[in-house]
Amino acid sequence: MHAISEATSWLGATPKALRHWEPACDGTYRIYSDADLGRWARSHRFSTPPPTPPWASPQGELLRRHRASISEWYEVTASRQLILARMYVADERFGAVYGGQQDYLLELVEAQAAAEGLDVKNPAW
Fold first, then answer.
1. Which residues form the TipAS antibiotic-recognition domain (predicted)?
2. 26 Ramachandran zone, left/alpha/beta (phi>0; psi -120 to 50)
3. Its pTM surpasses 0.90
4. CB proximity list for 124: less than 8 A, separation 6 or greater
């Protein structure tokens, strides 16, 4: 399936690790995201640097909603969230889902991951 092979390529995960996606994939590219997250992101425009730690800030709501939307598919770690947030910035198809806030989401995720002690230069799935 296209979505599985694309996810495998992006995430560095094996098809076995992504087996939970197979029933949900129909062979076309689909963005898995809580629709509410996209609406919320579009309604909030953040321009300030991410606070430290982001999780406890008002901007942290974007971070929390993002993590919750991912948790529907698999266990979410700071490292996984960072890998996915980087993918959202690198792949323009995610821009519409995150209301143009994918760059800011990445800043929040990186700041939170660093606050949790993650080596943000070397995240692992």
1. 61-107
2. alpha
3. no
4. 79
Same domain, 19 and 51: no
Domain residues for the domain of 46 are: 32-125
- Directed axis angle between helix 60-70 and helix 78-90, to 10°? 100
How many domains, the chain? Answer: 2
Distance CA 92, CA 51 (A): 26
pLDDT digits (tens, 9 = 90+) for 50-101: 666 666 777 777 788 888 888 888 888 999 999 999 998 888 877 777 777 7
Half-sphere exposure of 17 (CA within 13 A, CB side): 11
For the segment 9-55, what is each residue's pLDDT rounded down to a tens digit? 655 555 555 555 555 554 433 444 445 666 666 665 555 566 666 66
| Residues 101 and 125 grouped into a single domain | yes
